[in-house]
Amino acid sequence: MTLRYESVGHTDTGKVRAHNEDAILVRDDVGLWVVADGLGGHTAGDVASGMIVDRLRALPRQGDVFDFVEAIEDTLSQVNAELRRVAREQNVDVIGSTVVVLVHDKDFMLCGWVGDSRGYCFEDGHLRQITRDHVHGAKSDVTQLGQAQPAGAGVLTRAIGAEEQLFVDWVVTGSRPGMAFLLCSDGINKELSDAELDQEYREHNDPQMVLARLFELSLNRAGRDNISAVVVRLRD
Questions:
Q1: What is the pLDDT of residues 64-83, one digit of tens each?
Q2: Domains in the chain, please, with CATH?
Q3: Which listed residue, of 25, 35, 139, 229, carries a Cα 20 to 30 Å from 208's Cα?
Q4: pLDDT at site 43
């Protein structure tokens, strides 16, 4: 069977952080792509992002797309509950992660997210953000969960592992040949503006080339955070 899409993903520790708390998932077999960003400044962010990716990697795709989305939400809710249990046992405030997921269907694409990991859609020669950051106030390099930061930086208002009940937001887009998508942790956004991301998508049609350029540009700059991205293109 010829897939209706091509995709590629990569994650890098960056130039400042000691270890990588991001995790990615590329499942062309079921049309599922994920970027998870473990919470910096909290305990075991890599455990949280890794748990999300591991559980979704094992998830079968059964029934129609809505059954699959429901299974994804159930899986994320289970991870949410488990992370909260582990945090209580270890007597720490939060073990958590943000996440953005993309699901393919022949008629439409579904993008879900929790936190400030982002999803973008490239269509008609223009890249636009299709997610909305779960951040109160101005998003900045030091945005963290549940506490005001210096100089009026924003507060992350939602993450997996943060609250008893988990809410995942979803957005629907078209599913037409030539459309492309970007999922990324905020390590990308700290180095590249939306205008720069748009420029790269305009200049490069191949997902591997787009991905390589995003990492080249980010790592040639400060590389202040872990850097993760997944690029998906629907085939002509």
A1: 999 999 999 999 999 999 99
A2: 5-234 (3.60.40.10)
A3: 139
A4: 67
Q: Which pLDDT score is estimated for 86?
A: 94
- Better pLDDT: 19 or 43: 19
φ, ψ for residue 199 (rounded to 5)?
-60, -40
Three-state SS for the chain is: CCCCEEEEEEEECCCCCCCCCEEEEEECCCCEEEEEEECCCCCCHHHHHHHHHHHHHCCCCCCCHHHHHHHHHHHHHHHHHHHHHHHHHHCCCCCCEEEEEEEECCCCEEEEEECCCEEEEEECCEEEECCCCCEECECCCCCEECCCCHHHECEECCCECCCCCCCCEEEEECCCCCCEEEEECHHHHCCCCHHHHHHHHHHCCCHHHHHHHHHHHHHCCCCCCCEEEEEEEECC
